[in-house]
């Protein structure tokens, strides 16, 4: 519909939304926002546009043309608007201001996205599961969780990622770049999250708390692993024997029992070990160091687990219980041996006569009936015995002690 303005100028009105234009061409272009008509198509990729100017700008993505340059740093851009917004990074100007919280932005689109934090608007929805997002880019990234698409590949090792940001982080494993530094001790880190978690070692803050037992942790991944002690979840399984673990690192260590790989060697005697901790504990047999001390009786131990077991002699704790008869034991190995009284298992066999035994020590004692070995000798008369208890009983004939 055409009308005239107060100045006599011809005006063209939209019959759908009553917008007014001074040019018929502008009205025609505007009507496409209602009809969704896109008559201008790209001959390269087939993408279509409602305006010819938009097609011309799009063509630059194929030709690589960047006609707009920054006068300060020389950076070039496909669009004039992008170049003008870039200029504001030099001037510090942020002309787009939020009327609700007064936050200001360099780009208009950043303000538009920010406004949604106040309105709660999430205009981009996933067609598969219905999840909605504030940003289109976030929705596109989410879609890859359904399609499995990983378009960003590492040129060095070929590993692929669904998000470009994850590829950039991964590249640091090749370059060794550690852009995040601790302000207190100057330690540097590959990832920002790792640096923030490290900072808590200085402040003592442990922000990740277990809702079951209230244990707290510096790192979120430590809380995730801890939660498995409550749920019993063991998501990492050995493909060889089916044994499962709560931590991936434990599975990797376990795999060495199948491969025979021993990565850690003693610098003194050359003995090699599957686990680093076992090698470090072995090193203490050379130095004589016993860093684990009992607070009750001051006994000291080379291994932490030996101290843990020793503490039970004071507390009386017997954490390993038989599911058949309920008998409890201080050591897990004692429970394993005890279970043979129920199962009848005799895993130790004599190589000479094939007699079998529940305990290894019993098998070794039996072997002496074949070898004639008598390793236990009386210090008084020199008489020797196959078993230590027999020698001790004999000693009483010299001391006069009654059994």
Verbal overview:
The structure is a single chain. β14 (180-181) and β15 (188-189) form a beta hairpin. The protein has a domain at 1-65: Classic Zinc Finger (Double Stranded RNA Binding Domain, 2-Layer Sandwich), CATH 3.30.160. The model has no long low-confidence stretch (mean pLDDT 86). Strands 1-2-3 form a three-stranded antiparallel sheet. It has 14 helices and 29 strands. By secondary structure, the protein is of the alpha+beta class. The chain starts with a strand and ends with a helix.
Task: Give the secondary structure arrangement, pairings included.
Layout (H helix, E strand, L loop, with lengths): L1 E3 L5 E4 L6 E2 L2 H12 L4 E2 L6 E2 L2 H12 L4 E2 L6 E2 L2 H12 L4 E2 L6 E2 L2 H12 L4 E2 L6 E2 L2 H12 L4 E2 L6 E2 L2 H12 L4 E2 L6 E2 L2 H12 L4 E2 L6 E2 L2 H12 L4 E2 L6 E2 L2 H12 L4 E2 L6 E2 L2 H12 L4 E2 L6 E2 L2 H12 L4 E2 L6 E2 L2 H12 L4 E2 L6 E2 L2 H12 L4 E2 L6 E2 L2 H12 L4
Antiparallel strand pairs: 1-2, 2-3, 4-5, 6-7, 8-9, 10-11, 12-13, 14-15, 16-17, 18-19, 20-21, 22-23, 24-25, 26-27, 28-29
């Amino acid at each position: 519909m055409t009308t005239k303005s107060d100045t006599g100028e011809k005006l063209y009105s939209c019959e759908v939304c009553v917008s007014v234009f001074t040019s018929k061409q502008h009205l025609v272009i505007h009507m496409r926002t209602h009809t969704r008509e896109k008559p201008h198509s790209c001959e390269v990729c087939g993408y279509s546009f409602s305006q010819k100017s938009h097609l011309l700008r799009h063509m630059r993505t194929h030709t690589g043309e960047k006609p707009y340059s920054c006068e300060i740093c020389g950076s070039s851009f496909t669009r004039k608007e992008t170049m003008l917004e870039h200029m504001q990074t030099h001037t510090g100007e942020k002309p787009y201001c939020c009327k609700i919280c007064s936050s200001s932005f360099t780009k208009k689109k950043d303000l538009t996205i920010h406004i949604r934090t106040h309105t709660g608007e999430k205009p981009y929805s996933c067609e598969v599961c219905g999840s909605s997002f504030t940003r289109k880019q976030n929705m596109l990234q989410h879609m890859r969780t359904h399609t499995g698409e990983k378009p960003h590949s590492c040129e060095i090792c070929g590993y692929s990622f669904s998000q470009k940001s994850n590829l950039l982080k991964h590249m640091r494993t090749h370059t060794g770049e550690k852009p995040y530094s601790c302000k207190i001790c100057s330690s540097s880190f590959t990832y920002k999250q790792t640096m923030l978690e490290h900072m808590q070692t200085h402040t003592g803050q442990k922000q990740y708390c277990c809702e079951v037992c209230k244990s707290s942790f510096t790192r979120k991944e430590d809380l995730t692993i801890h939660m498995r002690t409550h749920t019993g979840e063991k998501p990492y399984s050995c493909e060889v024997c089916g044994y499962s673990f709560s931590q991936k690192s434990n599975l990797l260590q376990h795999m060495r029992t199948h491969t025979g790989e021993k990565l850690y060697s003693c610098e003194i005697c050359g003995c090699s070990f599957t686990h680093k901790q076992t090698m470090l504990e072995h090193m203490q047999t050379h130095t004589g160091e016993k860093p684990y001390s009992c607070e009750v009786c001051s006994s000291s131990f080379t291994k932490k687990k030996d101290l843990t077991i020793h503490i039970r002699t004071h507390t009386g704790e017997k954490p390993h219980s038989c599911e058949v008869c309920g008998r409890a034991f201080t050591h897990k190995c004692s429970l394993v041996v005890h279970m043979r009284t129920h199962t009848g298992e005799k895993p130790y066999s004599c190589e000479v006569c094939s007699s079998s035994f529940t305990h290894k020590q019993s098998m070794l004692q039996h072997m002496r009936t074949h070898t004639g070995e008598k390793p236990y000798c009386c210090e008084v008369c020199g008489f020797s015995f196959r078993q230590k208890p027999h020698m001790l009983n004999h000693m009483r004939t010299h001391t006069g002690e009654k059994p």
